[in-house]
């Protein structure tokens, strides 16, 4: 039987957390309910999902995917993030390709410059 547990793969002997099960269930529901994403999500799975607190009492969901599935996820990540944000209302869903760090350089005296 195909279940949401197939959408998350952990190391041997490690059980997924309750939140990771929730994210895996959301992936499973998207695969079964959204015809547009069904064929793309068929062979995809996640490694971990983390819920983080960010500024302004907001929460973000960070989803880690296996490196070898990076290209298929990148192909659908805009639609996938949009659908997951609907499922996790009030939380931001972040795909690592969207995270861009700001470079800050420091002088020897500790002053910042760009």
Automatic annotation (TrEMBL):
One of its GO terms (biological process) is ribosomal small subunit biogenesis. InterPro entries: Ribosomal_eS7, Ribosomal_eS7_CS. Keywords: Ribonucleoprotein, Ribosomal protein. One of its GO terms (cellular component) is cytosolic small ribosomal subunit. The keyword Glycosyltransferase does not apply. One of its GO terms (molecular function) is structural constituent of ribosome. Belongs to the eukaryotic ribosomal protein eS7 family. This is 40S ribosomal protein S7.
């Amino acid at each position: 039987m195909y279940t949401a547990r197939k959408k998350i793969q952990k190391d041997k002997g490690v059980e997924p957390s309750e939140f990771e099960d929730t994210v895996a269930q959301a992936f499973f529901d998207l695969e079964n309910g959204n015809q547009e994403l069904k064929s793309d999500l068929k062979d995809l799975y996640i490694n971990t999902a983390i819920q983080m607190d960010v500024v302004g009492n907001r929460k973000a969901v960070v989803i880690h995917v296996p490196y070898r599935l990076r290209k298929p996820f990148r192909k659908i990540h805009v639609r996938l993030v949009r659908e997951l944000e609907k499922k996790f209302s009030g939380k931001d869903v972040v795909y690592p390709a969207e995270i861009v760090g700001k470079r800050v350089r420091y002088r020897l005296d500790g002053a910042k410059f760009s």
